């Protein structure tokens, strides 16, 4: 039995993914995971839920983080 190779995906992840996890933004901001989840619920930056996992768009998060307070 042979397995066909999929040439579209090399199996190598990009060096710098374009998303953060909730755990990563919690560490970046120096807050708890619970607080990071609350921030995600406030739609301050682009998030996507994939099953039970929440991924945060890196560009939108960094734009929000670097923006001046209202």
Give keywords.
alpha+beta; 37% helix; 3 helices; 70 residues
Gross morphology is globular
Task: Please tally the β strands and state the result.
Answer: 3
Major β-sheet strand ordering:
1-3-2
**Radius of gyration of CA atoms, rounded to a whole number:** 16 Å
**How far apart are the first and last residues' alpha carbons, in Å?**
62 Å
Largest sheet: 3 strands, antiparallel
* Helix/strand order: EHHEEH
Tell me what portion of residues adopts beta-strand conformation. 15-25%
* DSSP helix fraction: 25-40%
How is this structure best described in words?
The chain is α+β, with helices and mostly antiparallel strands. The chain is built from three helices and three strands. A three-stranded antiparallel β-sheet has the order 1-3-2. A hairpin with a 2-residue loop joins strand 2 and strand 3. Helix 1 (about 20-30) crosses helix 2. The longest helix has 9 residues, at about 35-40. The chain is globular. About 10% of the residues are buried. The model has no long low-confidence stretch (mean pLDDT about 85).
Spell out the blueprint of helices and strands.
Layout: E1 19-21, H1 22-29, H2 33-41, E2 47-50, E3 53-57, H3 58-66
Antiparallel strand pairs: 1-3, 2-3
Helix pairs in contact: 1-2
């Amino acid at each position: 039995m042979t397995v066909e190779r999929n040439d579209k995906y090399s199996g190598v992840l990009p060096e710098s993914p374009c998303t953060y996890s909730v755990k990563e933004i919690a560490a970046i901001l120096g807050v708890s995971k619970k607080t990071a989840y609350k921030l995600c619920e406030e739609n301050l930056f682009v998030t996507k839920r994939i099953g039970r996992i929440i991924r945060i768009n890196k560009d939108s998060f960094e734009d929000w983080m670097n923006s001046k307070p209202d």
